[in-house]
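Aim 2, interim progress: modelling of the iron/sulfur cluster-bound target.
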Amino acid sequence: MYRIRFHGRGGQGMKTASRVLGSAFFHEGFEVQDAPRYGAERRGAPMNAYVRADRAPIYERGIILRPDLVIVADDTLVPIPAAGVLQGLDNRSVLLIDSATPEDEWRKRTNIGGPILVLPLPDTVDRSSLAMIGIACAGAAARLIGVISEDALEQAVRDELAPLGEAVVEKNIQAAMAGYAAMSDHAGTVSEGVPAAASGAGSPDWVDVPVEEVRLSGPAIHAGATSVEVRTGLWRTFRPVIHYDRCNHCNWVCSSFCPDNAISVAEDGRPVIDYDHCKGCMICVVQCPPHAIESVLEVEAAAAERRGSA
Ligand code: SF4
Ligand code: SF4
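Predicted structure of the complex, ligand included:
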């Protein structure tokens, strides 16, 4: 059985990627399971999706604890323990990361023994369109597994995305094929894992949690900024940038609409974004009446910031 886990952030199309890979397996005659798993269900939050595929009926259920292949669409997830990217990887599991950081650096950072690959994508894949990253990951996974043909992959994209129209389907097929081609030197690197056996399985690592009164165990949160220690700004893939020459201090519509309370108003009346806690939902960009807030790719904004401070 093949066990594949996709990790990404809400909005990166990883649920669709798992569906496309599952359908492609199906076209090759496999029995398939695929399912997404969300935490906070909102754009930018860590999520994962998994696919099981076998020539025989699949009786295994639940999340994949010992993956044969892990695909990571957003490399900022790797150091976040709660995202569980490295969970269960052994010396034969393949880790594929969409990242500008080279493989040997990831080897040092993760200290894992199995193959590590980074996903190089040609310029024809529009990285500013988040969903394109997910579909390219699906294509790359198909090639790494080695039992999925281009025809099966193309048909799977058509099956899953047909309701979105022909133009979207064609764009996604192009991105899926780019991912497929990018892994041509590693075709078949992923091997099937052994079936999980009930015999010899250890007992669950139960812990006793003392029962508390509801009054104590249910925290009351009545205001924003109660989670200052959690930098949700790390989730951001796009950054809102205010152009103060166009901002007319319009009663701070942006601040009122920000769902994370990440825009405050300075003493001189200027709206100021708290980038440590702005999750990049772009609601402020849409709501600003004079269009004074621009949406900029996070990597480009960070690079411009570094150049400015150099
Ligand atoms: S909504 Fe736009 S114009 Fe109004 S305060 Fe915010 S940035 Fe300025
Ligand atoms: S993008 Fe704008 S509205 Fe969304 S969290 Fe950031 S500052 Fe708030």
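The mean pLDDT is 87. The first strand starts at residue 2 and ends at 9.
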